[in-house]
Amino acid sequence: MAEDNFPWLKTYPEGVQWQFECEYKPVYALLEETAARYPLRYGFDFYGRRYDWETLLNRARRLAKGLQDQGVKKGDHVGLFLPNSPYYLIAYYAVLMTGACVVNFNPLYAEDELAHLIKDSEVDIVISVDLAMLYEKMHAMLHGTRLKKLVIGPFTRTLPFPKNILFQIFKGRELAKIEKDDRILWYEDLIANDGNVDKPAIDPHTDLAVIQYTGGTTGIPKGAMLTHANICAN
Fold first, then answer.
1. Domains and their CATH numbers in the chain
2. I want to staple 39 with a disulfide (CB 3.0 to 4.6 A). Which of 54, 57, 158, 169 is the partner?
3. 8 Å CB contact between 77 and 85
4. Model confidence over 52-92: pLDDT tens digits?
5. 55-to-47, 63, 137, 193, 196 alpha-carbon distances in Å
6. Pairing verdict, β 42-46 and 49-52
7. How far is CA 97 from the centre of its chain?
């Protein structure tokens, strides 16, 4: 009997089904299906600038292609050092389309924490934005860690008019001054392609989608490894 093995089922309200069939697939397939079904519906709103599902999918594909052109391939780990913004959603799905694994870095982490996580997660490339509080910390990681490339998205490009202009006028000091460096790649350059991604085969049960670090309240943060199936099931 199921209740003998799972005694907590006895506390479920009558009629609640505890068994279900989950269709396991690559996580990015969920985005593709949503964009095919609701292409012009808004997927998210960022300070008044709305993005429909088709736009999100197209930009993710183009960024994925750009990352592949930089050598990102299945099994690689790509860091995301981003605030809640359109860049995060686009980068998240783009990385997964390449077959690589997303490694989330908390924007509040200090440099010593970032250095440890970059080493522990074996990340060679990180995607971030030109906000000074983020850029300066991650740029420092190009010296003394294994980090080789830093992709930067202009934060004001995510804002609607006139907020994009007003941010530069009144909060321009929060934007980093970025000097020319071959290790710095601009988001706009990476997405300047046809979006024809060479998506590798994904085994949802064994291929990693995300390495999510714990809060580290009882020690150093530890990376929880999540497969595509893990995320689909939730």
1. 20-232 (3.40.50.980)
2. 54
3. no
4. 999 999 999 999 999 999 999 999 999 999 999 999 999 99
5. 17, 12, 31, 15, 15
6. antiparallel
7. 11
